[in-house]
Amino acid sequence: MELLPILVTWDFTNVSAHALEHAVRMSNMSGKNIVLLHIIKNNNSEDTVFEQLKSVSKECKRKHGIEPKIIVKAGNIFTTISETANNIQAKLIVMGTHGYSGIQKIIGSRVKRVLSKSNAPFFIVQAPPKQIYLKRIIFPIDSNTEMKENVSFIINLANLYRSEVIIFKNITNNLKFDFKTNLTSEFIVNNLQSNKIYYSEQIHNDRTNFYKAAIDLVGKKQADLIAITTNEVSSLKDYFYDTAKQQLVANCHKVPVICFNPRRDNIHTI
């Protein structure tokens, strides 16, 4: 039985090369195949691009012993990535990003528009992997966090990479909010304990920005991955909340971020 693949978005930039390097690391650990996806505006350039991607795939095999499959599709990044991932039943989408630029610092990253359409989680990278293992995974949670259905993926990653999971909990002294945060934290801790995953907890309980504090913790702990859930934007409050969360995606330490969509009917595993 063929293992479900890791999909890598490829646009011939340095950050897409970084994404492929991360996918190779995961493939070496999990045994999964890699698929390279390049999106074109129309079918006129399909043959040329396919030949260029064949060179990328062969170079990957020469360097790493892994020859990714190739998909070239006409479309746009906002729908075609998720459609392709869903069609091939990808378990993970690895995507490079340059972070924020220009007006996007105010209205949010392009990445957010891409994330919301996919069943598979996104692994967003800004730089090549620093080491083979993901030694520390930062897991920021607050009253808006819907991570319960995605804990299995984090557990699987932690088992693969022998990672420590660091739960970073936002306590606001609002009884209603903190009750929800503590329920989520308790659920996560129980699952980590039952799967014998090494973990620790850190509490943020002052008035400073929670996501800025999370980024500071990433640097302090020399973390290798941040795990977050994207939120459906149904109100202005949700919009600003999720825009604040995008600070993590474009963090200054250039640590990868795994982004889940809150799907209660879909348990993510790698």
General description of the model:
The chain is built from nine helices and ten strands. By secondary structure, the chain is α/β, with parallel strands linked by helices. It has two domains: 6-125, 3-Layer(aba) Sandwich (Rossmann fold); 136-255, HUPs (Rossmann fold). Strands 3-2-1-4-5-10-9-6-7-8 form a ten-stranded mixed sheet, with helices on both faces. The radius of gyration is 18 Å and the shape is elongated. Mean pLDDT is 85; it is low at 102-108 and 233-241.
Largest pleated sheet:
10 strands, mixed
**In the CATH classification, which architecture of the largest domain applies?**
3-Layer(aba) Sandwich
From the spread of the alpha carbons, the general shape counts as: elongated
What is the residue-averaged pLDDT? 85
Task: Briefly note the CATH topology name of the largest domain.
Answer: Rossmann fold
> Number of folding domains?
2
Helix content: 40-55%
Task: Provide a brief overview of the structure.
This protein is an alpha/beta fold. The chain has nine helices and ten strands. Helix 7 links the parallel strand 7 and strand 8 (199-204).
Please give the structural blueprint.
Layout: E1 6-9, H1 14-30, E2 34-40, H2 46-64, E3 69-74, H3 80-88, E4 92-96, H4 104-107, H5 110-115, E5 122-125, E6 136-141, H6 151-161, E7 164-170, H7 175-194, E8 199-204, H8 210-221, E9 225-229, H9 236-249, E10 257-260
Parallel strand pairs: 1-2, 1-4, 2-3, 4-5, 6-7, 6-9, 7-8, 9-10
Antiparallel strand pairs: 5-10
